[in-house]
Amino acid sequence: MRRFFDLVLVLAGLAAIWQAAHLFAGDVALTSPGRTAAYAIELVQTARFGAHAGETARAFVFALAISALGGLVTGIWLGAHRLSGEVAEPILVALYSLPKVTLYPVILLVFGLGLPAKVVFGAIHGIVPVVIFTMNAVRNIKPVYIKAARSMKLAPHEAAFRVLIPAALPEVVSGLRIGFSLTLLGVLIGEMFASKRGLGFMIINSIGLNDVETMMAVTLILFVFAALANAALLALDRRLHERA
Amino acid sequence: MSRLGWLRFGVLAGSIGALEILCRSGAIKRLVMIPPSEMALELWKILLSGKANHDMVQTFTCVAAALALAVLAGFFIGLALHALPRLRAAVNPLLGSWYAVPFFVFYPLLVAVFGLTMLPVIVIAFLFAVVTMVINTLNGLDRVPRVLDKVARAHRMGPFATLLRLKLPAAAPNLFTGVKLAVAYSFIGVIASEFILASSGLGYAIAYAYNNFDNRTMYALMLFVLGFVTTINMLLYMWEGRMMRRRQGR
Questions:
Q1: Whole-angstrom Cα distance, residue B129 to residue B150?
Q2: Going by C-beta distance under 8 Å and a sequence separation of 6 or more, which residues neighbour residue B206?
Q3: Between chains, do B101 and A105 touch, taking CB under 8 Å as contact?
Q4: What residues of A are in contact with residue B244 (Cβ under 8 Å)?
Q5: What is the rounded distance in angstroms from the CA atom of residue A99 to the CA atom of residue A109?
Q6: Do B229 and A99 lie within an 8 Å CB cutoff?
Q7: pLDDT digits over A139-174, tens only?
Q8: Alpha-helix residue ranges (DSSP H) falling in chain A
Q9: Please, what's the largest Cα pairwise distance for chain B?
Q10: Is the ipTM of this complex over 0.85?
Q11: CA atoms within 13 Å, Cβ hemisphere of B14
């Protein structure tokens, strides 16, 4: 209860800073928290917002599916096969810390303008942390589990589904949580550049038109969505780590 | 070089070679990608002519400023949060969902406040990089062994001396991880905001070349950015690995 109260206090503090910034910069640059929230609620009910949000959601779901599945398969392989893992690790770290935005033109040239480019761009953001966390999780599985799997003569896919994945699950969920945020960021950045649909486009378009109200409202909606999804995944993450 | 090093080098050289062959044979069209050797050649020409120097200087200045601010502020915020557990518990969910915020939307606001200078880009990159430093400072301080508190008490050290001589050295590996990530995030923040919004800098130059179908310049600059950032990150990564090994060896 006290933690909840403290969180409310922190949020109130942030709203106060926001309000102060609004008073300082004026409506031209920043709408007040109250008005932004009111406009956000209004905006969510419009058909225009629904269409853009639907487009972003579609790209996000595809990109997340690729990040999660591709990341899991690659991560298990690199974790289980020691040499490949050691060769790949620094390369993965290098990929993780690249400014991937610079690669967006290449993706646009290969996949053309539209949904596939956004999906690929979101996926290249999200897949790397999933691979890194899964790889480390599989590597840190207690050797006795692997011996047990071997002595029961499990086939590789049986060993993966019955031993490796359950043992590595807590760490994998941590990776998925980071992958989730980064995939969303990737999709949004993809929409901000060379796109005509989606929430990222809505933001960049309202920046261009100096429509501060829409820009702030969409940002607020995205932040609330991301924070809630993250809190849910964090709770799952904690529960799995406690159990392990 | 070790066997692993050679293998890594082989994987990298093999990928670049395959790309070169695919581009030369026409399997990848020239409109999509130019061969890596031509990218390098074009980059060499750009570097010689000095026409991108202005953008490079601007990008590196922004990265350096954002990095310095993020490391300093992140460290002190981390220190403060570690000392105030109740505030930390309340702020924790915010830190966890920080990277879900597309900071680039604050650009117009920052332009209104700071004008059309480098500051808006620096502030965005700072916001992007600061939280990873905060999180790693907290992690580092969490991992300081409890016994060091007793050591400090036994030696009657003041809180400042304890921090400087015991806690910070113990937390150093995590602090270094924070700096390493802050470097990567500063680059990402600066180049992404230049790419989407600003009107100068390397990110902008790449987007500009893309919009003008100037593939040669685009790929040359891309090679420069990716090569430069990767070199820096890899040096930090190797240094970190050495530091960690030395700690374990003791």
A1: 34
A2: A102, A105, B195, B218, B221, B222, B225
A3: no
A4: none
A5: 18
A6: yes
A7: 888 888 888 888 998 888 888 788 877 888 888 888
A8: 2-25, 33-44, 47-80, 82-96, 104-111, 115-139, 143-151, 156-159, 165-192, 199-208, 212-243
A9: 74
A10: no
A11: 6
